[in-house]
Amino acid sequence: MILALTLFLLAWAGWQLWLLWAWALGRREREPRDRFGLFSLTLEAALVVFLTRVFVPWTPLTSWGWSLLFAVIGGGAALGVLRARDLPWVVAGSPGALRRRRVLAPFYAAVLLVVNAVVYASLL
Asked: CB of 84 within 8 A of CB of 35?
């Protein structure tokens, strides 16, 4: 069961990271439409990687992998910030998708704030 959960979470994290980098690099088929979408995708990728870290057993290899995944998220976020100047804040789309992003983005940010606090506390 743990192996299946680990593989699922790693696949999900890989998908989120691929989407983040594809958006940040501005590939034609995955080009970002607005800044809010880029921001919420970055938060989703970070949250999925954090969940992967919570549920995957702790070994030195997974801790290095976790650090590497967060470095990849940081790079994707940095590229997204460079591209964000050319994007509008919000593009009108389906109301359900925009509402879902508005509800989930603060939740993701709160979870990541708690994660950062726990990591910072563990380093002291």
From this structure: yes
Whether 124 has a pLDDT exceeding 70, the answer reads no
Residue with tokens 């990271």, as numbered in its chain: 17
Q: Report the predicted TM-score, pTM, of the whole model to 2 decimal places.
A: 0.68
Distance CA 79, CA 52 (A): 23
| Burial environment of residue 50 by CB neighbours within 10 A (0 to 12, 13 to 18, 19 or more) | buried
Is the model's pLDDT at 4 over the cut of 80? yes
Tokens of 17: 């990271």
- Helix 2-25 × helix 35-55 angle, to 10°: 160
Tokens found for residue 59: 């070994």
